[in-house]
Amino acid sequence: MLDHADAQIQDGAAVAVIGRSGSGKSTLLNVISGIDRADSGVVEFGGRDVTALAEPARTLFRRAHVGFVYQFFNLIPTLDVEENVRLVLELNGVRGSDARRRSAAMLAEVGLGDRLHSAVDELSGGEQQRVAIARALVHEPALLLADEPTGNLDEETARQVLPVLLSLTRARGATLLIVTHDSVLARSADRVLELREGRLRESVAAGAESAPAVLAKPGSDNVAADLRSANERASSS
Ligand SMILES: Nc1ncnc2c1ncn2[C@@H]1O[C@H](COP(=O)(O)OP(=O)(O)OP(=O)(O)O)[C@@H](O)[C@H]1O
Ligand SMILES: [Mg+2]
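A: This is the predicted complex of the input protein with magnesium ion.
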């Protein structure tokens, strides 16, 4: 599925990944986060080869340093809004009033400070996706992976949720990898990569106008994620 899909992504960059259905975009995110394992190739993250980590270190690494936003929100229906967000902190060892305070503050940032104890299925799609964004960022991950985050929202709602995702990620200096079919969303990224025939290619059509400024951002020459792969075929592990 992935074949010599090579890319270096700068710390703090917002990168859109485009490509037709079935081209392997979700697989790519799963390989980067270590959910799926590639037959060959490496994923380096902040100078560390995460592909070399065995379980459970790989899970712990992902839990601590990566946040996820999915197309279908993936919230836990038996937990209320604040509990959905707090769970991520608790999994990382943050408990009690500290965890409650941080979840509430994060939810206030996405505009849901007054919905802390609502059931998630009482919320609109846009609100649920804002809970998912809060959940993805509450533990201050270095990398946020978003797989078609506006794919299940109507256009107007998508236009409201997108700036929340981009601005909060940028405010934290986190790196964002966002899979999208949405050309407006892709244009808001610093850089656009197209996945085609297993390879990642720089897309010049979209995002070109905003790319140079951010790529030249001073003092950010750290490589957040360095993906080198040869004849990769992701296999669930
Ligand atoms: N667990 C799996 N086992 C075997 N094949 C899989 C698995 N997951 C995905 N595939 C196959 O790998 C290919 C790429 O799938 P992937 O989900 O990464 O595509 P995508 O680019 O995200 O597509 P979409 O835009 O429709 O979400 C598809 O042909 C799919 O059928
Ligand atoms: Mg997909």
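The helical segments are 25-33, 57-65, 81-91, 96-109, 125-137, 155-171, 183-187, 211-215. The chain is about 35% helix and 20% strand.
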